[in-house]
Design goal:
Distance between the termini: 44 Å
Largest sheet: 3 strands, antiparallel
Shape: flat
Strand order of the largest sheet: 1-2-3
Structural class: mainly alpha
Helix content: 55-70%
Order of helices and strands: HEEHEHH
């Protein structure tokens, strides 16, 4: 995450990255090693990161909204939180059992 912010452009429209991502890819053995990468790849990576951050922000907002709705329903006496949580647990457990069936 932080290494993308440390990318700098050079004059030939390539990006020179610091050793972080290179080491992660197993392409470098020393921290000081740099590699030139086509700027189109880095631009696409930055765009994908931006999309991911937007998606995460939206997901966080939806989780907050769901929690607020659940609270409102519980306060109005329409939803019993213990029953809701038990049902949610059963559904998640059943999904895991379907995904990973036991063989005898």
């Amino acid at each position: 995450k932080h290494w993308l912010k440390s990318v700098r452009r050079n004059s030939s429209c390539q990006l020179t990255c610091l050793a972080g991502p290179i080491a992660l890819l197993g392409m470098a053995s020393e921290a000081g090693v740099e590699a030139a990468v086509d700027c189109k790849v880095w631009e696409e990576l930055a765009h994908l990161r931006h999309l991911l951050e937007r998606q995460q922000a939206r997901l966080n907002g939806l989780v907050e909204e769901a929690e607020a709705v659940r609270e409102c329903l519980a306060e109005a006496g329409v939803l019993r939180l213990a029953s809701f949580e038990a049902l949610l647990h059963r559904r998640r457990f059943a999904r895991q059992r379907r995904a990973h069936p036991l063989t005898a």
